Amino acid sequence: MGVLKTMNRNCLTILLACVAAPGLAGAEPSSNVAWTVETHSMVKHGNPEIGADIEKVETEDVNACLDCHGERGAEPDRDKHPTLAGQVAAYTFKQLRDYKDGKRENRRMEEAVERLSDEQLAALAAWYASQPTPTVETDPDDKVSEETLQLVFRGDKKRLIQPCASCHGENGEGAIIDVPSIAGQNVKYFVQTMKDYAADKRTNDIYGRMRIIAKSLSREEINELALYYARLPEQPRRTNLFQALLQ
Ligand code: HEC
Ligand code: HEC
User: Residues 238-245: what's their mean pLDDT?
Assistant: First the structure.
């Protein structure tokens, strides 16, 4: 009996420790979006024409999407505003839901989506996905080193960095389900969001995959990766391995 009592007290102590410790039992999920059949189907059937209309809507206190991201999400008004044109629909939908749920923090974006339904978010995602990826102007004097290219295609075993291309695709085009296209993204936004992941200011990446990677990269590597991906849409497309085998 005495032994049992001690055991119970120990169990309780462990339980309380788990609840109190951040990152253990008390951790919040990084996103509320679960890729159920229903969510998938809704994003897949998002109506791009409705999305094209919503992008123009402004209210008394909230700007229209195109005021900040440009028409078709292709000409952001400022370098730090992301390009949305050509983005994977499921990724855009997830980000919009994450802002709505307060899982990705940005006051302007939270205000922009709070009045929109999931169907409207899916329509916007479909609209941007149907648009071509724009080209980005970069300074031709800025160079990308051989070591940075290695990170894209081979990663770095010493730092446990997986190659970017293994998730984002050989042309940076993104992948199922919600891996974003990063080709043709603004250099300044790319750098900013990588810094946010590294500083735990952006925490909506499931399993913390991008936070772990961003923390391992140097500032210079991030700058060069941003440059590499900004220029990618102008480069000849690489054929993916499976296509190469089929030819
Ligand atoms: C006042 C300017 C502003 C308005 C209006 C605005 N956005 Fe944004 N948007 C931003 C900024 C700034 C960011 C980057 C914020 C961050 O770092 O989280 C962003 C981020 C995003 C992202 C994430 C992109 C990515 O690559 O992760 C999406 C998607 C997006 N906006 C869509 C929209 C849509 C759709 C609307 C209209 C309903 C809209 N935005 C309205 C400024 C704006
Ligand atoms: C294990 C798979 C994986 C690897 C490897 C990976 N990424 Fe990502 N990356 C993701 C996912 C998933 C997201 C979206 C996370 C979210 O929902 O916020 C993302 C998001 C990003 C974003 C933000 C895009 C936007 O529009 O806001 C950038 C930039 C990025 N990754 C760059 C890189 C670079 C550079 C590398 C290589 C050094 C890399 N990633 C390696 C899976 C990966």
Answer: 57
SS3 content of the chain, % helix, strand, coil (to 5): 55, 0, 45
Instruction: Note the pTM of the prediction, 2 decimals.
Output: 0.90
> Is residue 111 in contact with ligand 1, taking CB distance under 6 Å?
no
Whether residue 230 contacts residue 190, with contact meaning beta carbons closer than 8 Å, is answered with yes
pLDDT at position 80 over 50:
yes
Q: Looking at the CA of residue 91, tell me the nearest atom of ligand 2.
A: 17
Domains and their CATH numbers in the chain: 37-129 (1.10.760.10), 146-246 (1.10.760.10)
157-205 confidence digits (pLDDT tens): 999 999 999 999 999 999 999 999 999 999 999 999 999 999 999 999 9
Pairs from 207-210 (Cβ < 8 Å, separation ≥ 24): 207/30, 208/30, 209/167
CB 169 within 8 A of CB 240: yes
What is the structure's pLDDT at 75?
85
Q: Is 68 in the pocket of ligand 1 (CB under 6 A)?
A: yes
Q: Which residues line ligand 2 (CB under 6 A)?
A: 82, 94, 151, 161-162, 164, 166-168, 178-180, 182, 185, 190, 193-194, 204-205, 209-210, 213, 225
Burial 65-101 (b: 16+ CB within 10 A, else e): bbebbbebbbebeeeebbbbbbbbbbbbbbbbbbbbe
